[in-house]
Amino acid sequence: MRPNIYLFGDSITEESFGDGGWGASLSHHFCRTVDVVLRGYSGYNTRWALKVAERIFPPVESGGAPPLAVTVFFGANDACLPDRYSAFQHVPLREYKQNLHSIISFFKKRWPEIVILLITPPPIDEDARLRHPYIENPSGLPERTNEAAGAYAQACISVAKECGCPVVDLWIKMQECPDWKQAYLSDGLHLTQAGNRIVFEEVVKELKEKGISVENLPVDLPHIANIDPQDPLKAFQDC
Amino acid sequence: MRPNIYLFGDSITEESFGDGGWGASLSHHFCRTVDVVLRGYSGYNTRWALKVAERIFPPVESGGAPPLAVTVFFGANDACLPDRYSAFQHVPLREYKQNLHSIISFFKKRWPEIVILLITPPPIDEDARLRHPYIENPSGLPERTNEAAGAYAQACISVAKECGCPVVDLWIKMQECPDWKQAYLSDGLHLTQAGNRIVFEEVVKELKEKGISVENLPVDLPHIANIDPQDPLKAFQDC
Fold first, then answer.
1. Interchain contact, B17 vs A35, CB within 8 Å
2. Of the residues A70, A162, B185, B190, which has the maximum number of CB atoms within 10 A of its CB?
3. GO molecular-function annotation terms (chains A, B) (predicted)?
4. Structural domains in chain A (count)
């Protein structure tokens, strides 16, 4: 049985199987070795994620194999400003850190060997947020700021360090490109295909550093290159 | 727990989570309702598929929910000509039909309510096969012909009718477009993004006719639109 890698997060995870999406790319990358299981919930913050984690992640896996890894990719909604139109998604920074700690504890208790890979929220293009509001926004002020996203990204990195978890610093990584607003963000928050590509590459890199790579994983059933053209059925004797 | 839809097939299934792939598109389409589980095995024919079906599809699902549907997409390798370089993948037409019957029986016995959606092999562009051989091919003759693929497609449709299963006639559907060779095939056999799009649309259509659609399936956990901004946690009381 193939082990799972779970993708747990908000809309940037839920949308990750769209064209060029980082989830689909992971699934393609790990095909024949791992099932990449999508558990993205648009609009969710860490407070709501904690409420549902028990239900989303059943203790018993099909076939009994524990999952190899989980990506935990929250913060973009927690970082909504408390005095703007998305205030109901806001979670204070201090609680965000506590919640991430609790989510990590939940996974460590459930599956002690699982690799928990945190991903920080992406940077925010505030002008683009004003052009792409979820609802009517007569205030003229964006519901998220890049500064706030940066504070949550920093908190996420702190928690990862405290817990010994790997982390992708998406907030910094994306801003290394001068053209990050156009190149990586489609509406100032969600990711373009190039933005998805960065997440994919960083996740593959971090998983590889933890020993989770296509090279290290058993291939599900004989590869065509290992099937003897003179006696193909020999390859299936043990199946 | 979300139910599964399995994708069982050869390389055209295995590659279906690449950019614009039909598997990734299905996963995106059904997100929050279904887990689309990739079980594609490059180069496999129905003979080999039968050898491994028992191992690939364990009787007990995680959480106990039986899968909603499975796509069975074999024939492109069975239809390799028996006197060309891919002869070891060839399965005679008569056995191909028997094997499809056996695969359907396997799924019906395993999960009596499952929707088994057959997909015929795609048409073959023989000139493109000569330009894109798997191995050195000094014969100057393609290892697959469109006529042979058409015979296997017709056999697949017959089996579907005999068993009362829905079927996507990809061989015919693609050739309705005058430019099918360039539009839908990347190497005379595998699919371009436009070719993947056709498979995706046809699968969604056939599943919908069997009552499997996003509109009919329960959404996993409260949708953001149904979370009360005045009292968000109310939505999670039963989780």
1. no
2. A70
3. hydrolase activity, acting on ester bonds
4. 1
Given a cut of 60, whether residue B61 has pLDDT beyond it is: no
Is beta strand B35-40 parallel, antiparallel or unpaired with respect to B4-9? parallel
Domain that holds residue B158: 4-236
Contact status of A219 with chain B (Cβ, < 8 Å): no
- pLDDT of res. A23: 98
- Closest to A17 (Cβ–Cβ): which among B28, B55, B60? B28
User: With 0-12 CB in 10 A as exposed, 13-18 as middle and 19+ as buried, what is B133?
Assistant: middle
Which A residues 65-104 touch B at CB under 8 Å?
Answer: 87-89
DSSP A16-31: TTSTT-HHHHHHHHTT
| The pair of three-digit structure tokens given for residue B181, joined into one six-digit string | 């060779």
CATH of residue B166's domain is 3.40.50.1110
Chain B residue with Cα closest to A15: B28
Q: Is the pLDDT of residue A187 over 60?
A: yes
Which H helix or E strand runs over B174?
helix B170-175
Tell whether A64 lies on the interface with B, counting CB pairs under 8 A: no
A-chain CB neighbours of B236 within 8 Å are 48, 51-52
**pLDDT tens for each residue of B76-99:** 999 999 999 899 999 999 999 999
Please, are residues B221 and A39 in contact by the beta-carbon 8 Å criterion? no
